[in-house]
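Sat 14:20. Reprocessing the chain from the morning session after the first attempt stalled halfway. Input below, unchanged.
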Amino acid sequence: MRKKSTRKSNSRFRLFRLVIFAGLIMTLAFIFLVSTLGNQKFGGLHKLVLETTGPVQEVVTSGVNYLLSFKQGYLEVLGVREENKRLWKELKECRALLHKSREAMATNARLKKLLAFKDAADFPVVTASVIGKDPSMWFRSLIIDAGTNSGVVKGSPVANSEGIIGQVITASPSYSKVLLAIAPSSAIDVLLQKSRVRGVLKGSGKLTYRLEYVLKTVEIEEGDVVVTAGYGGMFPTGMPVGVVSKVIRKRRGMFHEIEVTPSVDYKTLENVFVLQRNESAVDE
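Finished this time. Tokens:
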């Protein structure tokens, strides 16, 4: 019983203290309000209340200012992020436009060379595009989109503005297969442009030629130009084939070992010309 009465007494005492504290706070607040609204003179009580509530107001004001500053910074970050996305989009569009412009300029330059070659040629030609490649070493070849319907026949020489590419080995109505001059099974009669000495140009299976059957008595140097000889009517005379890039002089044997770099860039072939021939010139 004593414990219960003690607990009740403690609860009443706490409640009493709470009421007294609340009353004191309300009294101070009332006095502060009245003194603020009614009298502009600062009394001692007013100063006491001001000293009591000032730090609280300072903390509240700082907190509000911090929240406002954080909100402003967050909005600015969002704006920068959106601006960044917009700029990246514009940059991608500019890069795509620049790529298209460069591709258009390269295509224009290539087509200008082809047109100049076609206008300067003394023989009819058929324009064709490369649509496929055979990478095998022995039968390096191309597939082009021109065939017998366009006047292309087996044995027709194929070239571009840079020089000889190869010859047609089979043709259908709309397509043809071209054996490249760099294929080991290819052989072309050629001349050294400077000395007019004849030789046979054979493919190496790589991006070079071998010039064979040139006697050691012939003076030959790196940089000498090699052109078609025109024998047999296969290729016109004087078309560029390549440039001598290496001469190996051995003690034994009758002939030089000569490496020739093609005048044609076989890695970037896109458009070619097929030189038209008469049916009587076609070898069955």
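The chain has two domains: 2-70, 125-281.
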